[in-house]
Design a protein that fits this description.
- The protein is of the alpha/beta class.
- The chain has one domain (about 1-285): Metallo-beta-lactamase, Chain A (4-Layer Sandwich).
- Helices cover about 15% and strands about 25% of the residues.
- The strands form 2 sheets. It has a 7-stranded mixed β-sheet with strand order 6-5-4-3-2-1-14. The chain has a 7-stranded mixed β-sheet with strand order 7-8-9-10-11-12-13.
Length: about 300
C-alpha cells in the first residue's frame, strides 16, 4: 500500500491567510514548514490512486505530487475521491475537480445529501463523476486491491449546517473514519474526531498505521493564542493533551501514530516546543505535506 500526505493542516492551512500568530509568522518566514489543508492519497500499486478528502488546496497538492499528474492529454491517475465529512476544508476542493475528467465520488448518504442540496456542486458532471453511496461498517473497493470500510466517529455537523443547537459528539454518517486495507496492512484515517470512547479504541486494535485528528493541543489553544474564543470541543475536535486526550486514550495502540489536520495555532508545530517533545516521547509523529508514509 502506498500512502502519501497531500496536506496536513486543519482548515485555513499554515500560514492561515489572515493570521499573524507565532506559527503562521514562522511559516511565512520559512522557519517552520507550511502546510496545506488535510488530505491524503492511497494506492495499492502506485498507479491508481484514491484521494481522501478534497481540500480547498487540492490543485496545488496534485501539482506538487508527480505520481498524481496526468499521464496523457486529458487524464488522471485519481480514480476515486472519498469524503469523510461535509466540512468546507474537505469538500471545497471538489469544485476544482470539475474539468470533465471522470472519477468516482464516495460519501455517506448524509454527506451526499449535503452536496446535493448545494447546487454549486452540480458543476461536477454526474455522467463523468458518479456519486456512490457508502454505508457504515460496509467494506467497498474503490480500486482493485484496496478495501475501505467507513465507520462512525463522534463529531459534529459542518459549521455551515449548524442550527440553534449543536450536538458536539454525535455518532452517525456526518463524521466517519476510514479503515484502509490491502493484503498486508491496515491503516486508519480519522481526520476529525470529538471523543475516543472504548468502542472506537477497540476498532483500532491491530492496525499498522493511524492518521488521527491533531487539531488542538489543549482545548483552549485559540484562547491561549488570542486568535479566537472557540474551544477544540466546540469545533468538534478533542485535544492531544490530557487524561481524555488522544495521546493518553490511544496509548495502548501498538501502531505507528501520526497526527494530521493540525490547526495553525497548535504549539506542536514548533519543533523545539515542550509540547512537541512530549508528543515525540509518547511515540507520535506530525504528518507533513508531501510525506510518503508507505511503503
Amino acid at each position: 500500500m502506498y500512502v502519501k500526505v497531500l496536506g496536513a493542516a486543519a482548515g485555513g492551512g499554515l500560514p492561515q491567510w489572515n493570521c499573524g500568530c507565532l506559527n503562521c509568522a514562522d511559516a511565512r518566514a520559512g522557519r517552520i514548514a507550511p502546510m496545506t489543508q488535510s488530505s491524503i492519497a492511497v494506492s495499492p500499486d502506485g498507479e491508481d490512486w484514491v484521494v481522501l478528502n478534497a481540500s480547498p488546496d487540492i490543485r496545488a497538492q496534485l501539482a506538487a505530487t508527480p505520481g498524481l499528474h496526468p499521464r496523457g492529454l486529458r487524464d488522471t491517475p485519481v480514480k476515486a475521491v472519498i469524503v469523510t465529512n461535509a466540512d468546507v476544508d474537505h469538500i471545497a476542493g471538489l469544485l476544482t475537480l470539475r474539468e470533465k475528467t471522470g472519477f468516482d465520488l464516495y460519501a455517506t448518504a448524509y454527506i451526499h445529501a449535503t452536496l446535493h442540496a448545494n447546487r454549486v456542486f452540480d458543476v461536477m458532471d454526474r455522467g463523468l463523476i458518479p456519486r456512490r453511496t457508502i454505508a457504515l461498517d460496509t467494506p467497498f473497493t474503490p480500486v482493485p486491491g484496496l478495501t475501505l470500510t467507513p465507520f462512525a466517529v463522534p463529531g459534529k455537523v459542518a459549521l455551515f449546517l449548524e442550527g440553534d443547537s449543536v450536538g458536539l459528539q454525535e455518532v452517525g454518517e456526518q463524521t466517519v473514519g476510514l479503515m484502509i486495507e490491502d493484503d498486508m496492512r491496515r491503516v486508519a484515517y480519522i481526520p476529525g474526531c470529538a471523543a475516543l470512547p472504548d468502542w472506537l479504541l477497540d476498532r483500532l486494535d491491530g492496525i499498522d498505521l493511524l492518521l488521527f485528528d491533531g487539531t488542538v493541543w489543549e482545548n483552549d489553544d485559540m484562547a491561549r493564542t488570542c486568535t479566537g474564543q472557540k474551544s477544540g470541543a466546540r469545533m468538534g475536535h478533542l485535544p492531544m493533551q490530557g487524561a481524555e486526550g488522544s495521546i493518553a486514550r490511544l496509548s495502548r495502540l501498538n501502531a505507528r501514530k501520526m497526527f494530521i489536520h493540525i490547526n495553525n495555532t497548535n504549539p506542536v508545530l514548533q519543533p523545539d516546543s515542550p509540547e512537541r517533545a512530549a508528543l515525540a516521547a509518547a511515540g507520535w509523529e506530525i504528518a507533513q505535506d508531501g510525506q510518503e508514509i508507505m511503503p
